């Protein structure tokens, strides 16, 4: 029988004191994402966000998204490096909101772990806070849950949800896409946060350790683990600036023909073709020209190790394209220039077509969306 001084919850494997310490360690990073709209600070039962600013909208639409990072966390755990996985989480959640042209307002996170190690939790949340600050998102709350017996002592998973707002007549989407629109690819920073089950399978099959040096991967990391943890590029702030720049005066109602940016697609699970098809109207199609770019070294090295050709990975990895913008032909060059000024390489990969399409196989929508059709054609710039 436990003594009166013993906490039975601690004996069961849950350390509430460690959880409290984790909150103290993360507070300053979280507060840096707060503007005057955030009320109540850190630690409340609910995060509070002053929505009175929405009074300035004629018809505000709230946009929301939720996601996780997937098995990329296994690599962070393997090399005990946790300060960038939160950036990946923001990329997976907040950048989805940008697809409809919405400005992110706030985000919450959830971390489930086998045991709370305060410094580790603080590192994860600090990464989330950095991503939130970069995208203009307030991190208003979260939860760290200790699940002994369900997760191993060193195991954790992360998830998050975010909310944004867009004026109804400024929302982007397939309804604005027109025949002859230009399709632009925006460069990724690498694998981002998709396809890591295949990555880990290839690395394990090749007998490579995450601590082994990785001189051929073309990233900032010196080891395989560091290279594979390259954070997801965040696009939200740059895309919102692009929309404002190309649309010019946003005070009046906008028709599809008056917009610069018509649709955006976040290239996540499913790859380029499936995700682009989701934001195209039915009866339209795009042939994405592989010859317009060369996938970065990390994709080539992994494919070679796995005995795969790059085409067979196109439904799993982004192959160097993290986002796609469908824009009016009149502003395509200006869009590329504006993105370059913001540090994002962009290039034309195709145009939107209507009517009869070639008989070859096309991807037609994904995630339950019955959209347009897309296929990748030709060989990549280096001939593969």
UniProtKB/TrEMBL annotation:
<feature type="domain" description="PurM-like N-terminal">
    <location>
        <begin position="61"/>
        <end position="166"/>
    </location>
</feature>
<dbReference type="GO" id="GO:0005524">
    <property type="term" value="F:ATP binding"/>
</dbReference>
<comment type="pathway">
    <text>Purine metabolism; IMP biosynthesis via de novo pathway; 5-amino-1-(5-phospho-D-ribosyl)imidazole from N(2)-formyl-N(1)-(5-phospho-D-ribosyl)glycinamide: step 2/2.</text>
</comment>
<dbReference type="InterPro" id="IPR010918">
    <property type="entry name" value="PurM-like_C_dom"/>
</dbReference>
<dbReference type="Pfam" id="PF00586">
    <property type="entry name" value="AIRS"/>
</dbReference>
<dbReference type="Pfam" id="PF02769">
    <property type="entry name" value="AIRS_C"/>
</dbReference>
<feature type="domain" description="PurM-like C-terminal">
    <location>
        <begin position="178"/>
        <end position="358"/>
    </location>
</feature>
<keyword id="KW-0067">ATP-binding</keyword>
<dbReference type="GO" id="GO:0046084">
    <property type="term" value="P:adenine biosynthetic process"/>
</dbReference>
<dbReference type="InterPro" id="IPR016188">
    <property type="entry name" value="PurM-like_N"/>
</dbReference>
<dbReference type="GO" id="GO:0005829">
    <property type="term" value="C:cytosol"/>
</dbReference>
<keyword id="KW-0963">Cytoplasm</keyword>
<comment type="similarity">
    <text>Belongs to the AIR synthase family.</text>
</comment>
<dbReference type="GO" id="GO:0004637">
    <property type="term" value="F:phosphoribosylamine-glycine ligase activity"/>
</dbReference>
<dbReference type="GO" id="GO:0006189">
    <property type="term" value="P:'de novo' IMP biosynthetic process"/>
</dbReference>
<dbReference type="InterPro" id="IPR036676">
    <property type="entry name" value="PurM-like_C_sf"/>
</dbReference>
<dbReference type="InterPro" id="IPR004733">
    <property type="entry name" value="PurM_cligase"/>
</dbReference>
<keyword id="KW-0658">Purine biosynthesis</keyword>
<dbReference type="InterPro" id="IPR036921">
    <property type="entry name" value="PurM-like_N_sf"/>
</dbReference>
<keyword id="KW-0547">Nucleotide-binding</keyword>
<keyword id="KW-0436">Ligase</keyword>
<protein>
    <recommendedName>
        <fullName>Phosphoribosylformylglycinamidine cyclo-ligase</fullName>
        <ecNumber>6.3.3.1</ecNumber>
    </recommendedName>
</protein>
<dbReference type="GO" id="GO:0004641">
    <property type="term" value="F:phosphoribosylformylglycinamidine cyclo-ligase activity"/>
</dbReference>
């Amino acid at each position: 029988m436990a003594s009166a001084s013993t906490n039975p919850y601690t004996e069961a494997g849950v350390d509430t004191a460690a959880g409290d310490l984790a909150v103290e360690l993360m507070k300053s990073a979280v507060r840096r994402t707060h503007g005057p709209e955030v009320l109540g600070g850190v630690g409340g039962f609910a995060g509070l966000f002053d929505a009175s600013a929405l009074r300035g909208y004629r018809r505000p639409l709230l946009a929301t998204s939720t996601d996780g990072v997937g098995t990329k966390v296994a690599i962070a755990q393997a090399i005990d490096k946790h300060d960038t996985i939160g950036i990946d989480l923001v990329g997976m959640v907040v950048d989805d909101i940008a697809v409809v042209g919405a400005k992110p307002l706030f985000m919450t996170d959830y971390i489930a772990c086998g045991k709370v190690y305060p410094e580790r939790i603080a590192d994860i949340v600090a990464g989330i806070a950095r991503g939130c600050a970069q995208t203009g998102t307030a991190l208003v709350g979260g939860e760290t849950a200790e699940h002994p017996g369900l997760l191993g002592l060193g195991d954790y998973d992360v998830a998050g949800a975010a909310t944004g707002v867009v004026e109804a007549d400024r929302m982007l989407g397939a309804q604005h896409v027109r025949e002859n629109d230009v399709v632009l690819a925006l460069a990724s920073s690498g694998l981002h946060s998709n396809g890591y089950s295949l990555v880990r399978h290839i690395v394990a099959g090749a007998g490579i350790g995450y601590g082994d040096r990785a001189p051929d991967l073309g990233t900032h990391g010196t080891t395989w683990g560091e290279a594979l943890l390259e954070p997801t590029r965040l696009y939200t702030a740059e895309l919102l600036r692009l929309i404002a720049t190309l649309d010019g005066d946003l005070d009046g109602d906008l028709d599809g023909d008056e917009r610069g940016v018509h649709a955006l697609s976040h290239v996540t699970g499913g790859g380029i073709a499936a995700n682009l098809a989701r934001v195209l109207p039915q009866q339209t199609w795009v042939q994405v020209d592989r010859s317009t770019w060369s996938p970065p070294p990390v994709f080539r090295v992994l494919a070679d190790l796995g005995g795969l050709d790059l085409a067979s990975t196109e439904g799993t990895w982004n192959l160097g394209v993290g986002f796609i913008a469908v824009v009016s032909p009149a502003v395509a060059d200006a869009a590329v220039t504006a993105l370059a000024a913001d540090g994002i390489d962009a290039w034309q990969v195709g145009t939107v077509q209507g009517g009869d399409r070639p008989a070859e196989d096309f991807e037609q929508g994904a995630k339950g969306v019955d959209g347009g059709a897309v296929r990748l054609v030709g060989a990549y710039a280096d001939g593969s």
